[in-house]
Every structure is written in structure tokens, then in C-alpha cells.
């Protein structure tokens, strides 16, 4: 029997004995929008709350936050209708700026912009990449949870502030979407670090919203920024647009998050001795920083002492110099956990902590394009190839155990059905 999962821009495959039971833990089929651009137009024309385009005619400046290369947002479908809506207000192109919201990731260079911004948009409008360590930031106050809010000044000072993104599961903020593209994507490191400290809270769980302290802190940041409009997409596993939602950012989340949750939750009947987890291919496996999220999903259904195989190309390696520098020299996952608790939260090292925490009860084998030396430096057990990783894991399976395969683990919320 062949197991095949997404890997980079392609797939990887391995053979397992026919006698073994294999469960493909995949998201349910959901019809994609037949005309995604028309669906985005509909969402903008029918906002989910009382947002109105009237009153924004001829504003002096418009700032639009869009996600970076690590997140597969269908900008080719979302941005043209948004530009049409702005043009209907007689807002000139020169008044509109796109901000690539990188958060704590490295800034994108202009030669990388075509990977995010459609060429017809890129040729017409000013596009800049945020830099959380160097951009001119403005302080807006503290949230009730003590997060100091430092945000990109140019975005905050625009007359009309818009965020564009997707609503999908997030391992500790619950869901992406809404104001997050600006509240985290255009924030300073001090803000990102303070918010992400809440990942250690027991209620900061994937697939939650109103009860999630990390997510509600994000909402407070967005309120201080004063984001006027969110345009969000909900995607299927093939990254096709299922539904678009637009309007006040909080209303967008309250409307879109339940739908995204229904599309992303999958029940399983037992835990597994072996879980194969793919983030879903490029760009979700562009580096360890992003691919790590797949391990969090796999950890929900692996038995104690079992094995998780992460298949992630990671052409950009760790994806964070802070992460790579911090974990280098540490000898065990327990040392990572101890050091993280002793030193306190920092962006970058938190990825090492999450990996160590999520694999506390299971072995992790990684199949990637990274050198074995880099993998080991990141405390990842590398395999020569996918088949080798599977063969090693099968040796530890009990005769009656089944294998779980998560082809799109980052976007899947598996849970044990009791």
C-alpha cells in the first residue's frame, strides 16, 4: 500500500504492508466557489455587519495589510474586487499602500513581492514590507493582559485601514484572520513577544475564539489600531476559496470562525502509534518555523511512545535566525523546555519550545531537504527519505495498530471521538 503526502511543490510516497490499517485523516469535501472573484465581490457588497463604504469617499490615504509568503492567501481573487470597491469611492491609486505583514518573520525583499502580490496590483500601487525590528513604530497603549502595543506607524496613520487574509486554525491563537494581519503582522517585536507569551495559557487552544486569551488579546490590539475593514477567505484543502467574508473585523471572525471550524475538524476513533503529518506542501512547509504547526495537530492523536513523521521540504531551513541561534547547542527537548521557562518568552525560541512540548510523549522523525547537520542542530531526528522514516517507525508498531496520515495537518483539527 502506498502512502503519498504533499511535500514542497510536489509529493513524497512510501510503501507500507497491505495488512496494516491506514486512516487518511483528511478534511471533508466542501464545494469551492465557482467564481471566487465574484464571491469576493459579493462579500464586499454584503458586509456581515453595519460597515458601509459611504463615508470613506476620497479619503487621503488607504493602508492594506496582506499576509507574507508563508501563508497561502488567494490575493489574486481578493484584491481585484477590493481595488474596485476603493476605485468606486474615487480614491486614486497613489493614495493606496499595501503593507506585507511579516510579523516576526524576516522582511520580504522587493524581488519576492510577486510571490504575494498579483502583477497587475504590484505594477499600480506602492508595496512595502514590514520590519518588526526596524520600522518606525507608534505606541498605542497596553491591552488588559499587559501587551504593549507597538505598530507600524504608516499603517496606523492612514485614513482607511484594511486587513486581508484567511480564517484557518492556528495552534495557539485559535484561528488566523480578522485583525491579526495587522495586530501581529504589522506589530513590533515587543508586542508579538508579549502576545505570544499567552500561548502557555491552557485556554490558548487551536480552534477556539471567544475563550482564547491569546486571540482576545489580538482583538484588543486590533481595536487600538482601529482597523476599519477585514476581507477574509475560508479555503478548502486544495486552497480553493469556499467563502469570503467582509466587514467589521470582529464580526468577520464571529461569522467566519464557526464555518472554518466545521470545515477543519475531523474525528478519529483512537490514537495512533504512527502519525504521518504533512503541513500541506508549499508554502506551509517552506521552513521549520511554519512546518512545526503540523506537529501540533499530529500530537493530538499520537499515543504515548508513538512516532510522528513530519514531511516538510523546508527549503529555507529554520526560517528564523532567532530560533536557530537559540536552539543551537542545546542537547535535548527537555533542556529546551527548561531554558524557555527560565528565560521567558521570546519570538523564535517559542518554536523550539512548541516542538519540544508537542513531542514530549512521542518520537519525532523529520523528512526534509535540510542537511542532517542543520536538522540535528534544531534537535530534529532526520531521515534519509520518507520510506526510511516509515520503515523505522513501523518497527515500533504493535501488530494491531493503525497508521494515521494527515495530508494537510496544519489546516486540520483532529480530535479523539469519545
What topology emerges from the helices and strands here?
Elements (H helix, E strand, L loop, with lengths): L1 E6 L2 E6 L5 E4 L11 H10 L16 E6 L7 H13 L8 E6 L17 H4 L3 E4 L7 E6 L5 E5 H4 L3 E7 L2 E2 L3 E2 L4 H4 L5 H8 L16 H13 L3 E7 L5 E7 L1 H16 E4 L3 E6 L10 H12 L2 E10 L9 H7 L5 H11 L5 H10 L4 E5 L4 H6 L3 E2 L3 H9 L7 E5 L6 E4 L2
Parallel strand pairs: 3-19, 4-5, 4-9, 5-6, 9-12, 14-20, 15-16, 15-19, 16-17, 17-18
Antiparallel strand pairs: 1-2, 7-8, 10-11, 12-13
Helix pairs in contact: 1-2, 9-12, 10-12, 11-12
How would you characterize the overall build of this protein?
This protein has 418 residues and is α/β, with parallel strands linked by helices. It has two domains: 2-28 and 269-416, 2-enoyl-CoA Hydratase, Chain A, domain 1; 36-264, 3-Layer(aba) Sandwich (Rossmann fold). It has helices at 36-45, 75-87, 119-122, 153-156, 180-183, 189-196, 213-225, 249-264, 288-299, 321-327, 333-343, 349-358, 372-377, 386-394, and strands at 2-7, 10-15, 21-24, 62-67, 96-101, 126-129, 137-142, 148-152, 160-166, 169-170, 174-175, 229-235, 241-247, 265-268, 272-277, 302-311, 363-367, 381-382, 402-406, 413-416. A hairpin with a 3-residue loop joins strand 10 and strand 11. Helix 1 crosses helix 2, helix 10 packs across helix 12 and helix 11 packs across helix 12 (349-358). The two termini are 29 Å apart.
Question: In a nutshell, what does this entry contain?
Answer:
This protein has 418 residues and is of the alpha/beta class.
Amino acid at each position: 500500500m502506498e502512502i503519498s503526502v504533499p511535500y514542497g511543490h510536489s509529493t513524497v510516497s512510501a510503501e507500507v504492508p497491505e495488512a496494516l490499517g491506514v486512516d487518511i485523516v483528511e478534511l471533508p469535501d466542501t464545494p469551492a466557489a465557482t467564481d471566487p472573484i465574484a464571491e469576493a465581490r459579493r462579500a464586499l457588497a454584503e458586509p456581515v455587519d453595519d460597515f458601509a463604504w459611504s463615508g470613506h469617499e476620497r479619503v487621503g490615504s488607504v493602508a492594506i495589510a496582506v499576509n507574507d509568503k508563508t501563508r497561502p492567501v488567494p490575493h489574486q481573487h481578493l484584491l481585484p474586487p477590493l481595488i474596485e470597491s476603493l476605485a468606486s469611492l474615487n480614491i486614486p491609486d497613489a493614495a493606496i499602500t499595501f503593507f506585507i505583514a511579516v510579523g516576526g518573520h524576516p522582511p520580504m525583499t522587493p524581488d519576492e513581492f510577486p510571490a504575494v502580490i498579483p502583477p497587475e496590483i504590484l505594477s499600480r500601487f506602492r508595496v512595502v514590507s514590514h520590519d518588526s525590528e526596524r520600522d518606525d513604530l507608534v505606541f498605542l497603549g497596553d491591552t488588559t493582559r499587559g501587551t504593549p502595543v507597538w505598530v507600524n506607524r504608516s499603517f496606523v496613520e492612514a485614513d482607511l485601514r484594511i486587513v486581508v487574509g484567511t480564517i484557518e486554525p492556528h495552534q495557539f491563537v485559535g484561528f488566523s484572520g480578522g485583525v491579526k494581519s495587522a495586530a501581529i503582522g504589522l506589530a513590533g517585536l515587543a508586542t508579538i513577544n508579549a502576545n505570544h507569551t499567552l500561548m502557555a495559557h491552557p485556554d490558548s487552544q487551536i480552534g477556539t475564539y471567544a475563550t482564547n486569551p491569546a486571540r482576545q488579546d489580538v482583538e484588543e490590539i486590533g481595536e487600538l489600531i482601529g482597523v476599519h475593514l477585514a476581507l477574509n477567505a475560508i479555503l478548502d484543502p486544495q486552497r480553493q476559496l469556499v467563502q469570503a467574508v467582509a466587514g467589521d473585523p470582529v464580526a468577520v471572525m464571529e461569522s467566519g470562525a464557526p464555518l472554518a471550524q466545521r470545515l477543519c475538524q475531523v474525528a478519529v476513533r483512537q490514537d495512533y502509534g504512527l502519525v504521518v503529518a504533512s503541513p500541506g506542501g508549499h508554502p506551509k512547509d517552506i521552513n521549520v518555523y511554519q512546518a512545526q504547526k503540523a506537529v501540533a495537530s499530529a500530537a493530538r492523536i499520537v499515543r504515548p511512545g508513538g512516532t510522528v513523521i513530519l514531511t516538510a521540504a523546508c527549503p529555507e531551513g529554520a526560517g528564523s535566525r532567532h530560533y536557530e541561534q537559540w536552539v543551537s547547542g542545546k542537547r535535548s527537548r527537555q533542556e529546551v523546555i527548561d531554558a524557555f521557562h527560565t528565560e521567558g518568552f521570546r519570538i523564535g525560541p517559542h518554536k523550539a519550545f512548541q516542538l519540544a512540548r508537542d513531542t514530549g510523549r512521542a518520537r519525532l522523525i523529520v523528512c526534509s531537504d535540510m542537511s542532517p547537520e542543520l536538522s540535528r542542530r534544531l534537535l530534529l531526528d532526520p531521515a534519509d527519505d520518507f520510506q526510511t522514516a516509515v520503515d523505522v517507525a513501523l518497527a515500533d508498531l504493535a501488530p494491531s495498530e493503525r497508521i494515521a496520515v494527515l495530508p494537510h495537518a496544519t489546516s486540520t483539527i483532529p480530535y479523539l471521538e469519545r
